Fold this protein.
Amino acid sequence: MRKKYKVKMPTKSTLKNRKTTINNAFVYSIMPWEKLNEGEYKNICEKLKIKEDQCAYCLKENATTMDHLNGLVNNGEPSGFYTEKNNLVPCCSHCNSSKGNKTFENWYTDDKCDDIGITKEKMQQRRKIINEYMANNPAKKLNLKNILGKKDYEKYISMKNELLEKIEECEKFCEELNKKINTQK
Ligand SMILES: [Zn+2]
């Protein structure tokens, strides 16, 4: 049936779509989190050649978030990068959610120009500036297996996997109950 109204139906929350949240939370909860001070923030904007409210990627003056240049999660495991000044850039919420856990290199490509509203020429300039910035201000990367030791690191990963499997089990059971309810309502 074609939708004739403009309002959105209530979101159907599922256990399945909480898995990414759990995965991310496992990473964020062990990694350091270093808040920027005003001077550090201004310094980042200066080096990235943007105004203080400008998005580093699309240049719109609506930056309300900070993006991790190097994502904290890689294939479901911690990448080793964390929240610290060399890994943070001002970003609008649209660019931030579009980038997600992708790397700058893989995300900031010509085919994203229309989506984020920037010309190819401008993007080329920005790519150069941001790549230079990353080379001159390398983000810190921790080797977690060395810091934690193999035993604790493996325990950490298996605890997370156990939780994800449990969610899957709960989800299947809930689906069965949902079917039963739907047939008897
Ligand atoms: Zn943006």
The longest strand covers residues 65-68. The two ends are 23 Å apart (CA to CA).
